[in-house]
Design brief:
Elements (H helix, E strand, L loop, with lengths): L36 E6 L14 H9 L9 E3 L4 E3 L6 E6 L7 H17 L3 E6 L5 H6 L7 E6 L19 H6 L4 E7 L9 H9 L2 E4 L1 H13 L7 E7 L21 H14 L1 E8 L10 H25 L1
Parallel strand pairs: 1-4, 1-5, 5-10, 6-7, 6-9, 7-8, 9-10
Antiparallel strand pairs: 2-3
Helix pairs in contact: 1-8, 6-7, 7-8
Length: 321
């Protein structure tokens, strides 16, 4: 292939090639994951109570993530004077968990198998949903990983116990998590307005170790005040519902709730968590791209994930150095 100028190889612009997450290598064989980070899609939205469509979230977030694929040199941030996600941080995309239409339990089992494979390989699992019920199999997969604390960023508490026999819908995941003996607590940020959880659910959540803060309460506390509420030394699993953000910047979701977080409010909390804690897993859920023709919601999701991963591995290298 003819080259122009002194540069060689491919420019590999965002709109060229296959849309793996961050344009990182695809690993189809889950027994051969060799990476620091493994990304999996969980395109399941049968737990949704209102607008469906989050099954298309993984594809949309992957495509959006190509915008932030700067090759092997990493991404330099002049504010922090740091280069995030250099080539030394190995990220792979392992594709999607298989989804069996209308079968929640089979679909969740396939998601759980993927997370277990990532953990067995020693990779940080990152799961892109899908509705928030996909957190249930993600947390199940941590049953042999030691104690964890969950940081939830969300508009809704998701602490419904059972409703008309449903235990594994997208209103249930934090209740199911709190029942696990290895989940030592939950910090829920952004909970606001009318929620899917009734008053008794809030009472049960607090009794089971859930620290609940609205957007306004988080703003009053500030980033440092919020970080101080996380247990010192806790190993953190982060679950991000995109409706935790204000629909003015993230309208592409099934259950939008006005008054949500803006970008830097969440980013600064995640950066603080990465500096102070070991992050053991991440899921980002409820991106339903058909409700946002601009594509801004999935761009936000990809940007948050890539920045958070950058913070995590920069903090690791600083601690190890």
């Amino acid at each position: 292939m003819a080259q122009h100028g002194y540069e060689t190889g491919r420019l590999n612009l965002p709109f060229v090639g296959i849309s793996t997450f961050g344009k990182r290598p695809y690993v189809a064989d889950w027994t051969k994951i060799e990476a620091d980070v493994a990304v999996m899609g969980a395109p399941f939205d049968f737990g949704t109570q209102f607008r469906a469509g989050a099954r298309f979230g993984p594809r949309a977030v992957r495509e959006a993530s190509t915008l932030f694929s700067f090759g092997h040199a990493g991404a330099y941030d002049h504010e922090d004077d740091a280069t995030y996600l250099p080539e030394s941080v190995r990220i792979v995309d392992i594709g999607d968990a298989d989804i069996v239409h209308t079968d929640t339990e089979a679909s969740h089992a396939n998601i759980e198998a993927g997370v277990r494979a990532m953990l067995k390989a020693g990779a940080l699992p990152v799961v892109i949903g899908g509705d928030h019920s996909i957190n249930i199999p993600c947390i199940r997969a941590f049953d042999d990983q030691g104690p964890i604390h969950i940081l939830q960023i969300d508009a809704h508490l998701d602490f419904v116990d059972v409703r008309h026999g449903v235990r594994h819908g997208h209103g249930n995941p934090m209740r199911r998590a709190a029942e696990k003996d290895y989940v030592e607590g939950i910090t829920a940020l952004g909970i606001r307005n009318v929620s899917s959880t009734a008053k008794d659910g809030y009472e049960a959540a607090r009794a089971m170790g859930d620290d609940i803060l609205s957007v306004r309460q988080v703003r009053r506390l500030g980033t440092e005040g919020v970080l101080a509420r996380l247990p010192e030394g806790a190993r953190i699993y982060v679950t991000i519902d995109i409706d935790g953000f204000c629909p003015s910047i993230a309208p592409g979701t099934g259950t939008p709730s006005h008054g949500g977080f803006l970008y830097y409010e969440v980013l600064e909390i995640l950066q603080g968590v990465a500096r102070r804690h070991e992050v053991v897993g991440i899921d980002l859920v409820e991106v339903a791209p058909d409700y946002d023709p601009s594509g801004a919601t999935q761009i936000l999701a990809a940007q948050v994930l890539l920045n958070f991963l950058g913070f995590i591995f920069h903090a690791r290298s600083t601690r190890e150095g």
